[in-house]
């Protein structure tokens, strides 16, 4: 009798220990961003800090990547819990557009929020004489990492303007910081960047040399066969020496997760972001454009149920 009782007590203790271990297991949140000189990275760092402090038992990390396309493929493979991506790339991922870098439809990805717009910023060394899209012919330009969101933007814009990579003197596929360094060294004439306004790499370039911004006219934007692209303006004074507004294209960014992330964690990730927008704005000014009222509009993929719960509570759905 006593032996049976002891065995029962041991079994109960073991069960409690096992359940405690499960409850104590850390919640890993890997935030997939972009290059460290871009906008995704500092906002990603700020989010990871919010989650580390605000989600009990969380273990957060920030991963610098080649941005949109790589981020979405990593999410689908379960190698991240939150990622930044351009809206057109998210749509291409959901539909499995192979030419955009997606071999099959990514059906595990889910939206957390629409955030701030990326602006296409085509910057040239003023000495190159580049002032218009047509002036890029025969010149040396960088268009972002191969099949990155930036590079997909470049293809769409050039096609709408009646241009192709073959028209350029040389095309490099490099991220922000490397592109800027080559312009400084006179090894490139221009670079096309897709980013939030006030990005560090262009600020750095503007402080080093006289630069010119290439306009993307509204009539070119209208020819882009993708609803994610909208006419926009880079306001005068955004960068040193930029004394006039620059017509361009904007594409909204989306924070994306995957269906394997629990509803509670997705809820907390969404809530903590919107509860701390002012703090995110200090991480980078682009985050000041994140608005609750527009976070669920025109999303090309389903919301995660956890995020949906937050928006219903907040009256945003």
UniProtKB/TrEMBL annotation:
CDD domains: PBP2_TtGluBP
Pfam families in UniProt: NMT1_3 (PF16868)
InterPro entries, per the entry: TRAP_TAXI
Swiss-Prot/TrEMBL keywords: Signal
Keyword Signal listed: yes
Keyword Ribosomal protein appears in the UniProt entry: no
Span of the signal peptide: 1-24
The protein, known as: C4-dicarboxylate ABC transporter
Species whose genome carries this gene: Ectopseudomonas oleovorans (Pseudomonas oleovorans)
């Amino acid at each position: 009798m006593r032996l049976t009782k002891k065995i029962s007590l041991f079994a109960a203790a073991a069960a409690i220990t096992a359940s405690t271990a499960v409850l104590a297991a850390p919640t890993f949140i890997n935030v997939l961003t972009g290059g460290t000189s871009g906008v995704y990275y500092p906002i990603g760092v700020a989010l990871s800090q919010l989650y580390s402090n605000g989600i009990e038992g969380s273990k957060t990390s920030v991963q610098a990547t080649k941005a949109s396309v790589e981020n979405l493929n990593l999410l689908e493979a379960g190698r991240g819990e939150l990622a930044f991506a351009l809206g057109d790339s998210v749509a291409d991922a959901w539909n499995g557009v192979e030419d955009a870098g997606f071999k099959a439809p990514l059906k595990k990805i889910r939206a957390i929020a629409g955030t701030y717009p990326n602006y296409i910023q085509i910057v040239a060394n003023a000495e190159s004489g580049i002032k218009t899209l047509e002036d890029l012919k025969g010149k040396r330009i960088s268009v972002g990492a191969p099949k990155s969101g930036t590079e997909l933007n470049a293809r769409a814009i050039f096609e709408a303007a009646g241009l192709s990579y073959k028209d350029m003197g040389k095309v490099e596929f490099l991220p922000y910081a490397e592109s800027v360094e080559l312009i400084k060294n006179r090894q490139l004439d221009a670079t096309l960047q897709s980013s939030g306004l006030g990005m560090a790499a262009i600020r750095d370039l503007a402080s080093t040399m006289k630069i010119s911004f290439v306009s993307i006219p509204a009539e070119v934007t209208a020819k882009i066969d993708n609803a994610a692209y909208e006419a926009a303006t880079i306001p005068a004074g955004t960068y040193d020496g930029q004394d006039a507004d620059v017509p361009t294209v904007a594409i909204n960014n989306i924070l994306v997760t995957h269906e394997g992330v629990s509803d509670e964690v997705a809820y907390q990730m969404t809530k903590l972001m919107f509860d701390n927008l002012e703090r995110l704005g200090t991480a980078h000014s682009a985050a000041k454009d994140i608005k609750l009222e527009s976070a669920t509009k025109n999303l090309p993929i389903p919301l995660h149920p956890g995020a949906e719960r937050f928006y219903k509570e907040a009256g945003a759905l």
